[in-house]
Write a structure and sequence with these properties.
The protein is α/β, with parallel strands linked by helices. The protein has ten helices and 14 strands. The chain has a domain of 234 residues: Ribonuclease Z/Hydroxyacylglutathione hydrolase-like (Metallo-beta-lactamase, Chain A, 4-Layer Sandwich), CATH 3.60.15.10. The strands form three sheets. The protein has a seven-stranded mixed sheet with strand order 3-4-5-6-7-8-9, covered by helices on one side. It has a five-stranded mixed sheet with strand order 10-11-12-13-14, with helices on one face. Strands 1-2 form a two-stranded antiparallel sheet. Bound molecules: zinc ion.
């Protein structure tokens, strides 16, 4: 019937038009995700898109890094960072992976407030979180805080090796003029920053992911910056020299025990979410699962490859970063459990 056919043709055309628009939209989005507008910084030009998010109903803001390892495609923007605007000024948590990115975070702060940046908390001294400190040191009067174990990292050969590696992998954003910035102040177990209307608690949870893991709790808004204890929606990264999964589980248990329970967690990597209990539980279950599986293998003297091959990974194999992280994580836990046997 003609009417029917006409309607069909119109509908088909409509679908085609919609499809074309959708495709253009996707392409535009992809281009945008890779490179935004060129932005001049004192540390060179930066093009990676950096979007500022706000925690609902709170003067707490954050940016989310890209998945994957720091490289030219993401300019080193692989970790998250954020800040809190208080009566006494701005408190920043983490500074991103290059001085240019640190500077761009500072520009984001300036879009929101002209209050001075009073404090920058370095959640743990890993390259992807602290190379941006240089921008805060050179362009603000902020005091940089870290847990005292950060000092050991700064004087370790590993820190120098990592900087060399990043000068190649992240050139020109990390170059000969990039340097590690030490904290101005350190604490041991816990400290509270009095920011007038907002009390900000820093708590040492390491060694878990790193010796100096600091979580930052903004009690007034019930928001937690968890650092790399949690990777939002991804498998956490258990590789590295100083990982301690026992302490890590203690840290997660502590987050679960907070009263009132956090309403918002900004993780070190991956998306922030409004269901923090689920994120904490997911990370905890994963680490417990690894410890159970690898622990049994160690107890029974089963070699790692065999233990890995016979483990049922179906609960985790669809999680982003499974292929990149899981085997290495399992191996780290296997070695760690061997070591624990002799502790
Ligand atoms: Zn990290």
């Amino acid at each position: 019937m003609p009417v029917c056919n006409g309607a069909l043709i119109r509908r088909t055309r409509c679908h085609l038009v919609a499809l074309v628009f959708a495709c253009v939209g996707i392409l535009a989005f992809a281009a945008e995700a890779i490179s935004g507008a060129k932005i001049e910084t004192p540390y060179g030009e930066s093009q990676i898109e950096m979007e500022l998010h706000q925690v609902p109903d709170a003067p707490v803001y954050y940016v989310i890094g890209r998945p994957g390892v720091p490289g030219a495609d993401n300019e080193g923007l692989s970790s998250n960072a954020g800040f809190v605007v208080t009566e006494k000024g701005v408190v920043v948590y983490d500074a991103l992976g290059t001085p240019a990115l640190g500077y761009r975070l500072l520009m984001k702060i300036r879009e929101v407030t002209d209050k001075p940046v009073e404090i920058v908390v370095a959640g743990h001294y890993h390259a992807d979180h602290v190379y941006g400190l240089q921008a805060f040191e050179e362009h603000t009067d902020a005091t940089i805080w870290a847990q005292q174990a950060a000092l050991q990292y700064l004087s370790s050969p590993g820190a120098e090796r990592r900087l060399e590696q990043r000068r190649e992998a992240l050139f020109p954003w990390v170059d000969e003029s990039t340097r590690l910035v030490a904290p101005d102040k350190t604490y041991t177990d816990r400290t509270v920053l009095d920011m007038g209307d907002t009390q900000i608690e820093l708590l040492h949870i390491g060694p878990a992911h790193a010796p100096d893991d600091t979580i930052m709790i903004v009690h007034r808004y019930n928001v937690v910056f968890s650092g790399d204890l949690i990777f939002g929606g991804r498998l956490p990264f258990l590789g590295g020299e100083n990982v301690d999964t026992r302490r890590w589980l203690d840290g997660l248990a502590y987050l679960q025990s907070l009263e009132p329970s956090p309403r918002f967690i900004i993780p070190g990597h991956g998306d922030a979410d409004e269901n923090p209990q689920a994120s904490i539980r997911f990370t905890r279950n994963y680490i417990e699962f690894l410890r159970r599986q690898m622990g049994q293998a160690v107890d029974n003297l089963v070699p790692f490859a065999e233990a890995y091959g016979s483990t049922d990974w179906s609960d985790y194999e669809d999680v982003p970063t499974f292929d990149a992280a899981n085997r290495g994580n399992a191996y780290e836990v296997y070695l760690g459990m061997e070591k624990e046997l002799f502790d």
